[in-house]
UniProtKB/TrEMBL annotation:
This is L-cysteine desulfhydrase Cds1. A cysteine desulfhydrase that generates hydrogen sulfide, H(2)S. The H(2)S produced by this enzyme stimulates respiration in M.tuberculosis, mediated primarily via cytochrome bd with a lesser contribution from cytochrome bc1/aa3. H(2)S modulates the balance between respiration and glycolysis, and also contributes to redox homeostasis. Probably eliminates toxic levels of Cys (which can induce oxidative stress). A cysteine desulfhydrase that generates hydrogen sulfide, H(2)S. The H(2)S produced by this enzyme may modulate central metabolism. It comes from the Bacteria. It catalyses: L-cysteine + H2O = hydrogen sulfide + pyruvate + NH4(+) + H(+). Its EC number is 4.4.1.1. The gene is cds1. One of its GO terms (molecular function) is L-cysteine desulfhydrase activity. Keywords: Cytoplasm, Lyase, Pyridoxal phosphate, Transferase. The modification N6-(pyridoxal phosphate)lysine is found at K67. It comes from Bartonella choladocola. Its cofactor is pyridoxal 5'-phosphate. Belongs to the cysteine synthase/cystathionine beta-synthase family. Cds1 subfamily.
Length: 368
């Protein structure tokens, strides 16, 4: 080793040998090699309306949500940027799902993991993080999540992996079997292979950034709709770019809706945003779970409700075609919350009316 090399390795905070780096990347590549693609589930509305809704089931990743893709990309990105070494503690700010997936990848490559999460995060997610050996640091004020994560990383000499900043750039948006690439491949043999709409929701904004960029790059006519909880800032920012923050986001839908416009949120690749009341999301979550026979989480409900509004407009305009949305995670994670009628009652949610409207749309093609 010459002098320059030894100085470099002494000074770098996350220094690691190229040998260790190679091993870490190989471990993640092997994980990709063991994984199967997620299903694209088809739901046909009554034949009379000629509309089909497809749902990309991201709940079947090994760590149970679409955050599996993000965590994998963030680890590769950070490793290849020289930010992670064998002794680096990874720190993340999360509302839960990302932390579950990152704890899994941290364990795979053998580095410690700590996450800063709101105290209201579902107990099932906390259990999953801890099962992968991750440590949990609870906070009461969701707004302090970013600073707390950065401070914790500084104290521990660790690395704040920062999904909210890096989600949009850690993913290979041109292809490489990203979520958009996978959807269009799986649609290839369907009657309407190019969907009228793809509907996603935004937490980091990373998924919608990938979808929007890919649609444009591949020159598809598909439009991207982002469904956002009413209490979130993203749709306000979409309508008025000077709005960048609100006091707090009171939505109960975990994983999506923020009080701050996250750096990874890319409004210019979104064709439309639909704001969705939590009550409607919770109703749609139950209806779609029953219709397709798979348990879906709250943000899936938000997606499906927005899809229902688009379908409703298509029916009124006698338009045929397909729409694609995402099952972001499973309802099993919310057994003690969204799926508990007492929990809903205590919070004043009455979902029966919205459920009836949704059932009439999906089963009888009756528009809203
Ligand atoms: C993160 C998340 C989303 C949104 O995905 P982003 O790519 O972060 O915008 C939707 N649903 C759930 C359950 C999530 O955890």
């Amino acid at each position: 080793m010459n002098k320059i090399d030894s100085i470099a390795s002494y000074d770098a905070p996350h220094s690691c040998s190229r040998e260790w780096l190679k091993k870490a990347i190989e471990i993640i590549e092997a994980e990709i090699n063991r994984s199967a693609d997620t299903h694209l589930i088809r739901y046909d509305l009554p034949a009379s309306c000629g509309i089909t809704l497809y749902l990309k089931d991201e709940s079947c990743h090994p760590t149970g949500s679409l955050k599996h893709r993000l965590a994998r990309s963030l680890f590769l990105y950070s490793l290849c940027n020289g930010k992670i070494g064998p002794k680096t503690t990874i720190v993340e700010a999360s509302s839960g799902s990302t932390a579950v997936s990152e704890a899994y990848f941290a364990k795979l490559i053998g580095v410690p993991f700590v996450t800063v999460i709101p105290r209201t995060t579902s107990p099932q997610k906390v259990a999953a993080i801890e099962a992968y050996g991750g440590r949990v640091h609870f906070i009461d004020d969701p707004k302090s999540v970013y600073v707390t994560a950065q401070n914790l990383a500084d104290e521990l000499g660790g690395y704040y992996i920062d999904q909210f900043t890096f989600a949009e750039r850690a993913t290979d948006w041109r292809g490489n079997n990203n979520i958009a690439d996978s959807i269009f491949c799986q649609m290839a043999k369907e009657p309407h292979p190019v969907p009228e709409w793809i509907i996603a929701s935004a937490g980091t904004g990373g998924t919608s950034a990938t979808l929007g960029r890919y649609i444009r790059y591949r020159k598809f006519s598909t439009r991207l709709c982002v469904a956002d909880p009413e209490a979130s800032v993203f749709h306000l920012h979409y309508a008025d770019r000077s709005i960048k923050e609100i006091d707090c986001c009171r939505s109960v839908i975990e994983g999506i809706g923020r009080a701050r416009v996250e750096p990874s949120f890319m409004p210019d690749v979104i064709d439309r945003m639909i704001s969705v009341p939590d009550q409607a999301s919770l109703a749609a979550m139950r209806v779609i779970s029953r219709l397709i026979g798979r348990s879906c989480g709250g943000s899936t409900g938000t997606n499906v409700y927005a899809a229902a509004e688009l379908i409703s407009d298509m029916i009124k305009n006698h338009q045929h075609g397909s729409l694609v949305t995402l099952i972001c995670d499973s309802g099993e994670r919310y057994r003690s919350t969204y799926l508990d009628d007492q929990w809903l009652g205590k919070r004043g949610f009455d979902i029966s009316g919205d459920m009836k409207r949704l059932e009439r749309l999906f089963l009888e093609a009756k528009p809203f």
